[in-house]
Structure to design on (215 residues):
């Protein structure tokens, strides 16, 4: 066999292998075209027994029950664990029919810790008009509970170690980040920045929703 023929065969083999690898990778990319972060939603160590004491200390409210309608289309099919009680949450259905502020954070993120109390104050002001849900984007669920207990922040929280929500909504890879969803499930805006107080949050959310002066 000529040298040129052997080289041609070798190149073809490499191209076929690369094509197969690319196809296998694309199988795991969701319809949004954004691949979720590798990893798990939570650590093996975060068993219900291990989380019982941190959950009692954090005293988080339950996550929202299924609402009216199908919910945000981009989040359809995503099921996460509610940090407060460990129940499974169909995210799209839980957010259906609500004007939602999703706050994406992690326990080790300093600006997130500064912002979370402001999110809690904003929720207090808005009452039932807006639903604030935080999304913890790290595997260490126990650390999330302890951080929330330390801050005295009691908001419904989803455990999302694989960052499925961020991938589905095309949120930039920064924390904290806030996503504003309209009651019809559409995305009103993405805010990849920290907020220092509830007034800033109210102004930014109202702007995205096209409303008048915030509370």
């Amino acid at each position: 066999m000529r040298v040129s023929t052997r080289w041609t065969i070798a190149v073809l083999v490499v191209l076929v292998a690369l094509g197969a690898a690319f196809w296998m990778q694309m199988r795991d990319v969701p319809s949004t075209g954004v691949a979720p972060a590798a990893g798990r939603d939570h650590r093996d160590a975060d068993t219900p027994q291990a989380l019982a004491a941190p959950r009692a200390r954090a005293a988080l409210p339950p996550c929202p029950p299924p609402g009216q309608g199908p919910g945000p289309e981009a989040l359809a099919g995503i099921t996460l664990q509610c940090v407060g009680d460990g129940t499974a949450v169909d995210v799209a259905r839980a957010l259906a029919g609500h004007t939602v502020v999703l706050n994406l954070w992690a326990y080790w993120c300093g600006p997130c810790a500064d912002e979370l109390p402001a999110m809690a104050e904003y929720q207090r002001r808005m009452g039932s008009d807006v639903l604030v849900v935080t999304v913890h984007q790290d595997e260490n669920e126990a650390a999330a509970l302890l951080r929330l207990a330390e801050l005295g922040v009691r908001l419904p929280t989803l455990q999302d170690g694989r960052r499925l929500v961020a991938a589905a909504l095309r949120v930039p890879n920064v924390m904290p980040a806030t996503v504003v969803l309209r009651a019809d499930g559409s995305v009103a805006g993405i805010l990849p920045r920290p907020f220092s107080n509830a007034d800033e949050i109210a102004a930014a959310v109202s702007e995205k929703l096209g409303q008048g002066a915030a509370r």
Remarks:
- The first helix runs from residue 3 to 27.
- The chain has two domains: 1-30, 48-209.
- DSSP finds seven helices and seven strands in the chain.
